[in-house]
Amino acid sequence: MRRSHIPKSGELSGTLKRIEEKIDLLVDKTKMKRQAEKREEAMGLGGALDIATLLSLPDHLRKSAMAIMKRGRAMAEDVAKETGRVRAIESAYLNQLARMGHVKKGREGRRVYFTVEANQANVEYSLKEKVATVVG
């Protein structure tokens, strides 16, 4: 007869303790994520392009985001004309912004449009207002 390996009580308690610590970490991360989501919902952001988000984006993505905010709804070709970039590069940047949840991507036939929500479009207006106040 073959004997199965029976773990010693010390090994078993050590393993259980490590498992418990990992579960506690997962629970804490889940709680923190829920709290952040509640804060975003309360503030009405939910991935929107607010001023802090715009400033946190790399320059190349910020330029694309500002162009799409200015137009409201546009294809990559339209944004590329505004930014002076090649359409393929602009399309990649806009798709990256869409994956990050900052812009919405929609298809109409063969054309792909990128849009921002109404509260996102208002950020540009508030930015212009604040700049005019500081400059003027």
Describe the structure.
- This protein has 136 residues and is mainly alpha-helical.
- It is built from six helices and three strands.
- It folds into two domains: 36 residues; 85 residues, Winged helix-like DNA-binding domain superfamily/Winged helix DNA-binding domain (Arc Repressor Mutant, subunit A, Orthogonal Bundle), CATH 1.10.10.
- A three-stranded antiparallel sheet has the order 1-3-2.
Rg, Å, rounded: 24 Å
* Widest β-sheet, arrangement of strands: 1-3-2
* Text of the CATH class of the largest domain: Mainly Alpha
Distance between the termini: 91 Å
For the sheet with most strands, the description reads: 3 strands, antiparallel
Shape: elongated
Q: In percent, how helical is the residue content?
A: 55-70%
Total separate domains = 2
Structural class: mainly alpha
Order of helices and strands: HHHEHHEEH
Uncertain regions spanning at least 5 consecutive residues: none
Write down the oligomeric state.
single chain
**What is the helix tally?**
6
**Hey, roughly how much beta strand do the residues contain?**
5-15%
Task: Let me know the number of strands.
Answer: 3
The CATH superfamily title of the largest domain: Winged helix-like DNA-binding domain superfamily/Winged helix DNA-binding domain
Within the CATH hierarchy, at the fold level, what is the topology of the largest domain? Answer: Arc Repressor Mutant, subunit A
Instruction: Estimate the mean pLDDT confidence.
Output: 80
**CATH architecture title of the largest domain:** Orthogonal Bundle
